[in-house]
Write a structure and sequence with these properties.
binds NADP nicotinamide-adenine-dinucleotide phosphate, alpha/beta, Rossmann fold, 13 strands
Length: about 290
């Protein structure tokens, strides 16, 4: 049986990959290997001798990264360099997860979804460190860089504020009757099980290179919040605001939609429309709820 090392096993995507890859997965959390300890990476992975490495671990706190740049770069860029080096030495496949944020703002007048070949233009420490991570991952010949966007994992027993946008909205919806949500950022919220399924296919297909893997279509955070409350059956009044009014610490791209044609042409599992992801999330939440009562 294949031995696939999944880094970030305690996170949204890493956890789901471990679930889907089942017995083939060796899931490591930060406690198993702290990616900040750069000198530990090569010997620890050499010791395990995996057939493939999937790096779903990352410093993901976009705003805090502005104040913790060094730490962010160590995890998102320098650790990836060590992972690519050890994968090259083992001649194993290296799947590394990146982000739509590498594109930043689209300089074109009429933006269209970004293709893998479009020039990156990251803004902010998180985005720049993730682009550096992509460049590092490509030093391994058998690399796959997967860019994704707006992840939300299967529901847990109770939604947790800060885990992802859907969980955060559900938590806030319990205590607020009105919420202000940004309307001028277009993106594709993506359901983690769909992304993980596509990644498992990429792993087994032998593909190499860069692939965009997100649900199909696009929306904005305001519309997405409205859809969440409708499906959650919550009567929350959602007020659209601008990015400037919200005033986040790190810059956010205004049109951050990824073109998935390259992935789709491989003929793997279809990427469902983004609304389908939300439907499945709430179906699972309802199932969990009924199993508890
Ligand atoms: N979330 C999104 O909306 C989004 C969008 C686009 C791209 N991405 C990319 O997708 C990937 C997965 O994201 P996610 O949402 O699954 O992230 P997540 O839930 O925040 O999980 C990230 C994992 O990385 C681990 N980690 C952080 N620092 C570490 C360290 N020093 N050593 C070892 N492990 C460390 C964390 O462990 P602890 O739990 O112990 O801290 C956590 O389990 C990332 O590469 C991210 O950049 C995410």
């Amino acid at each position: 049986m294949m031995k696939i090392l999944v880094l970030g096993a305690g996170g949204q995507l890493g956890g789901e990959l471990c679930r889907q890859l089942d017995k083939a997965a060796v899931g490591w959390r930060r406690a198993d290997l702290d990616l900040e300890r750069l000198h530990d990476i090569v010997p620890r992975v050499l010791d395990l001798r995996p057939d493939a490495v999937i790096n779903a671990a990352a410093y993901t706190q976009v705003d805090r990264a502005e104040d913790e740049a060094e730490r962010c770069w160590r995890i998102n860029a320098h650790a990836v360099e060590a992972l690519a080096e050890v994968c090259q030495r083992l001649e194993c496949r290296f799947l590394h997860v990146s982000t739509d944020y590498v594109f930043g703002d689209d300089p074109r007048d009429a933006p269209r979804p970004f293709q893998e070949t479009d020039a990156p233009n990251p803004r902010g420490e998180y985005a720049r460190s993730k682009l550096a991570g992509e460049l590092a991952a490509r030093k391994c010949e058998r690399h796959v860089v997967i860019r994704t966007c707006g992840l939300y994992a299967r529901p847990e027993a109770k939604p947790r504020k800060g885990r992802n946008f859907v969980d955060t909205m559900r938590c806030l919806g319990e205590t607020h009757s009105t919420l202000r949500v940004v309307q001028d950022q277009v993106c594709t919220p993506s359901y983690v099980p769909h992304v993980a399924e596509a990644m498992a296919y990429l792993l087994n297909s032998g593909a190499t290179g860069t692939y965009h893997v997100v649900n199909i279509g696009h929306t904005n955070w305001y519309e997405f919040a409205c859809e969440i409350f409708q499906r959650a059956g919550r009567d929350v009044s959602v007020v659209p605001i601008t990015t400037a009014e919200y005033g986040a610490r790190a810059p956010r791209p205004r049109f951050s939609v990824l073109d998935t044609t390259k992935y789709q042409q491989l003929g793997g599992p279809a990427l469902p429309p983004w609304r389908q992801g939300l439907i499945e999330y709430f179906q699972e939440a309802a199932f969990n709820e009924s199993a508890r009562t």
